[in-house]
Specification:
By secondary structure, the chain is of the alpha/beta class. Helix content is 39%, strand content 16%. The chain has a 9-stranded mixed sheet, with helices on both faces. α6 crosses α10.
Length: 300
């Protein structure tokens, strides 16, 4: 199976982008080829024992990799994941992230899947006063990959796969404490931040192959979301399952994508249109500096 890497020009507006994303995606989601394998590689998946992360782990295991999952608790998967090492890590707590990295005991990581994420219906903040969506989806992952780089815990030719998503088109900024809370714009802002993180990683660490992915509209729990009635019925009609949702991340981890690519579960490599918020290099750099300031004490 050969994947088509011809770039697809993304729509500039949110509604056309969402329609393209969701239309018949159950039959159009691109599956990851079985080759190349990952024998001898160690992968780290945040949230790697439940939801989409479980199937990222399963896909990596099937390709011969050693898998480590970091999550807030030992998760219950849909079946036995006996070969996955689970380390407790709360991405909303930077001390927990640092302690989790310590538990790697020097283990080199070849592929990092920044997979874990939440959607919050209402504003919640961490003990440090940071809005929870930003803390988990963006800040915690920043400290994780920065500790791995600082401590020399990445292997040769490492990859970082950042789960972003087309929800980012609902936002123009990614901030730790939005003045007005809106579920769509705050979650979209975190996904915009994830896109910027992938692009900044590519710029600042050219030895790391970084990519962002849109996993698709997935029938999966994200934080306190709990659709019911017509919303649940519609979601079942258009959403893909968690195994399908894992394919974009597995493709970015195993296939010969250009570094800095944004891979879409249906469209493949996305070429963002001129003026797209994801291409704002100044805001991307500013976000990086902001995240570095939050993490300074843990990186000292």
């Amino acid at each position: 199976m050969t994947l088509d890497f011809t770039p697809y020009r993304a729509a500039s507006r949110m509604v056309p982008r969402m329609i393209k994303c969701m239309y018949r995606q159950q039959s159009r989601t691109i599956a990851c080829p079985d080759l190349p394998r990952l024998d001898g590689k160690t992968v780290l998946v945040t949230g790697g024992a439940s939801g989409v992360g479980e199937f990222v782990s399963r896909g990596a295991l099937a390709r011969g990799a050693k898998v480590i999952s970091m999550s807030r608790g030992v998760s219950e998967s849909k079946g036995a994941l006996d070969n996955v090492l689970q380390i407790k890590c709360d991405l909303a707590d930077l001390t927990s992230v640092r302690d989790a990295v310590d538990q790697l005991n020097g283990q080199k990581i070849d592929i990092l899947f920044c997979n874990a994420g939440v959607v919050m219906k209402d504003r919640k903040t961490t003990a440090d006063g940071v809005e929870m969506t930003y803390a988990i989806n963006v800040l915690g992952h920043h400290l994780l990959y920065r500790l791995l780089t600082k401590l020399g815990l990445f292997g040769d030719s490492p990859r970082i796969v950042m789960t972003s998503g087309d929800a980012y088109v609902a936002a123009k900024e990614c901030v730790p404490n939005p003045g007005k809370f809106s579920m769509n714009t705050v979650y979209g802002g975190s996904k915009l931040g994830n896109l910027w993180q992938a692009f900044e990683l590519t710029r600042r660490y050219p030895e790391i192959h970084a990519a962002a992915v849109h996993p698709g509209g997935i029938m999966s729990g994200l934080g306190d979301m709990n659709p019911k009635g017509i919303a649940l019925w519609l979601l079942k009609k258009v959403a893909i399952n968690e195994e399908q949702g894992a394919q974009a991340s597995l493709i970015a981890a195993t296939q010969d994508l250009p570094t800095g690519a944004y891979w879409h579960n249906v469209c493949g490599i996305m070429e963002l249109p001129k003026g797209d918020a994801g291409l704002d290099s100044q805001k991307a750099a500013d976000l990086w500096d902001q995240l570095e300031a939050f993490c300074a004490d843990y990186l000292a």
